[in-house]
Amino acid sequence: MVWQKAQLHHSHLHVPCSIFNTATLCRSDNLILSENDIIMINKSNISARRRQIEEACAKLKNEFFGIDSVIDSLCRNIESWVLFPDMQERPLIINLWGMTGVGKTALVKRLAELLNLDDLLYRFDMGDSSSSWSVRRTLCDVLSKDNEKKLMIIFDEFQNASTIDSKGESVEKPLTRLVWELLDSGTFNDFRSGFYTFDKIQKLKLILESLLRKGVTVKNGVVTGGKMLFLDYLNIKGSEEILCNGKWIPRKESKGYLQFVQSEYIDSIIEAAWPRFKTEYDLRSFILTLNGKETLQFISEIYSMILTPITYDCRKSVVFVIGNLDRAYSMSGNYNPDMSADDFHAESLRINRSDIKKVLSESFRHEQIARLGNIHLIYPSLSGEAFRQIIQGALNTISTRYLEKHGILFEFSQSMRDMVYAEGVTPSLGVRPIQSTINQLIVSNLGLVINEMSKFRKPCNKAVFEAFEDSVSVSLMKDHEILGSMKYPIDLEMSKLRAIRDDDRQAIVAIHEAGHAVIDIVLLNYIPDRVFSRSASADLSGFVDIHQFREYHSAKTLKKDMIALFGGMAAEEIIFGHEHVTSGSRSDIERASRLAALLIRNCGMGSFPGAVNLPTPFLNDSYLDLDGKLNDEVKNLLQDSFSKSLKILNENIPLLLALATHLTENSCIDKKQILQLLSSQFPQLAANSAQSSFSYRDHLRRKCAAGANPQPHSSFDEMPKLVMNMDDANLKK
């Protein structure tokens, strides 16, 4: 930078007190800096720092995959703090929320490194019960040296600092008050020293007062009168060292010199008086100029300072609030490794700041949410491509390290990357399972590979890895020449769970999931993304994966969903017979029953447009279905849905059997394969699946364009007269 270059050539250059003082000229020998020179220096500094931020942003995008938008937002929001921290009146609060293992904390740490600010970074784990004490102790220690020092503070695992419990009641957490003070004003009060120092200074003050009252005299910090009383009172042994004329010597050689303030109190005085005295030598030199009264006055001043709290200032700092908000990510509790990472990613992109604040309101009070501000960086769930880039990056790192240290190049084929993805990716758990999978399947076996390479007469400098069903084959090479090969066994647990079993269980699951898929295709006009008859999930033997997001739910679509939920059970009954229907439909039936009750009792989509509840003491805000007619509606809706599911499947048995056949021979069928099947064998269904659904906006436009004035429609006349407990006579009144 210009300023640094000027310093190199002009060693006597002095910095003006304020570089914004237009009346000040900076002179050094023949060098004169005018107002314009100073402005140019500032512009140069700002430009250099902005370039550093831009370069850091680019590097972060090369190291962290799938979060480019988060990186852009982070760098954009932190730029003003990097360039003009002194202009802040309150700390800059940046919140980072996401699922576990997406790189929230790592991103902030790496950014600090790239900006050469990692020495200003302090991380505190809010899940640690002693975190608040750690925050107070650390910040007091740092700011006591420079009370306006700019800092980068991380409050990690912030979800653990909740102040509202699961019952919605406030929970007092005194230890986190300091954190909320920082997030609010950026300042906090604390006493200058801890209890130990306070106790030592108080004890010294009382001792000195007592000694002076009893006649002990002091000159230049040394006891000159009442020495025996001083020794008896303090019970000092003759071998103790004392400072005499700036040198430490044993008391017996000091010719009777006794320091009025003994060495055991020195550290406590330095701590309490910082930064006035920074070393023991500075403090001793001062004390050796005092008489007894002056010494007592000095210690009394120190004691008063300890009793007066200090205001520590973090207003020039940036605070990162980092947490896992699982309730904002509905997919976070789904540990099925066969779920689509891209579906999770697309769903997570719909989460916005309002969603985050709503979830925060379940754990924090309103005024606390306000203190977090409005800068909320929301991490998406990692996409499939992001996971693949992460795997590729991790394998590249292994290759680079071994090449630099051992001169051996490791190359990993596409089959190795696919193996790590299949075994290591659980979309809801982020990156960490991938790291452990790579260690288990690759890193832990590199010793075997290197040992095998050492057996060749020619020096091997390259190994190419290829994955197979139950082993990894490694080609050992000298440049492009293959010298030999080796294999090591691997245990692919996820692949075993997904493997075709060709047994009764897979046959049942195949026909069950095929039933769901047929209803989706025929009734809902959805082509499933994937249908599984074998899964690595701990909860599901198979499932239909459909990436379909609805912003609203109509009575028509909800009733179709109920029919689709009965598709598996209906398929089993049609193919195997009623007596051979399995219990695998239990969860489908539960979901259908809840949906039917919700539709009739809470959504007003039955005969009664109101909220319905069971009779409960003190409940007077809902309609009570005392005669059970709405219960009958729920029952009839469920029965009707199952009947329609049977009807649709009976009309499409060829498609049902075609899908089931594929699923008994394979563990999965994807969307592309389903479309090929429909196009070749069921062209009419393929055409139907391309039809668009009902559009509320288009329907409204058509109505408006027609300019019609239809008669008001109401289903009121169709409602049972028992509703609202009114009869015709009451209605006439």
Report what the structure shows.
With 733 residues, this protein is of the alpha/beta class. Helices cover 48% and strands 13% of the residues. It contains 29 helices and 23 strands. The strands form eight sheets. The protein has a five-stranded parallel beta sheet with strand order 4-5-13-3-14, sandwiched between helices. Helix 21 packs across helix 24. It is extended.
The end-to-end span amounts to 89 Å
User: Overall pLDDT, averaged?
Assistant: 82
From the 3D structure, determine the CATH topology of the largest domain.
Methane Monooxygenase Hydroxylase, Chain G, domain 1
Number of helices: 29
Strand order within the widest beta sheet: 4-5-13-3-14
Strand segment tally: 23
| Model regions low in confidence, pLDDT < 50 over at least 5 residues | 1-31, 716-733
CATH class of the largest domain: Mainly Alpha
Taking the sheet with the most strands, its summary is:
5 strands, parallel
User: Pairing-aware structural class of the strands and helices?
Assistant: alpha/beta
Helix content: 40-55%
The number of domains is 5
- What would CATH call the architecture of the largest domain? Up-down Bundle
User: Roughly what fraction of the amino acids lie in strands?
Assistant: 5-15%
Spell out the CATH superfamily of the largest domain: Peptidase M41
Radius of gyration: 38 Å
**General shape:** extended
